Amino acid sequence: MHESNTTVSPKDRFLTVYGRKPVLEALDDPELRVDKVILADTARGPGAAEIQRAAKAAGVQVRRASAHRVKVLAGNGKQDQGVLADVVAPRMRPLTAALSSAPLPERVLVLDGITTPANVGMILRSATAAGVGGIVVPRRGVAALDPLVVKASAGVAFRAPVLRCATAAEAAGLLSDAGYRLYGLGATGGEGLFDAELPERAAFVLGGETAGISPDVEEYLTGWVSIPMPGDVESLNVSAAAAVLCFELVRRGTKR
Asked: Which end of the chain is more exposed for a tag (fewer CB within 10 A), N or C?
């Protein structure tokens, strides 16, 4: 079942960062807008005071919550240090919203089972740099958009055109219904990426580090494309392969 496009979850509007240093960095960055800071009621001392001062200077509300609640919201019970912040991601929205408004993004990436935060972060950085119209990051089956992803993206994750949905299979169905042709990026087989004829509206699925593209997503694929590798290397890291794909689209001069 596809999710309604009328209710937007906070997880589709904000990136949550946790830990004292990441929260302070977000509050001190004039290019970011922090919606709120949540501080554990057990957080005391100079660290908590510094966060409260920085939040006041930035005009950001600080809410108190139980330490357990902070851990639940952060999704990381070991590294939250009793504080988190919701940072506005202005280009992040539900996939359903992107597909119900004009113009539709012509080129979209779909992340399927990529669980290493560094890979997700680097894909967001490369795709945003290349001007890709949307990067589908499902809430399940893919690394959470947390400070590890933000760090790997060198902060680009905050302004990446992230599209949210429940699963990669849901994304594949929605995109197919919207007229996209879906292509799996594989190590071998299919058409060579540099020679393939691509339709005006295409989505490229990037599979997980070990299992690749999941069967329930594969059934939506129109075909496969692969990166020619004349050297004696079996495959590229998924983030490296994504970068090659994204800048091949740039080379083609495809309008986003």
From this structure: N
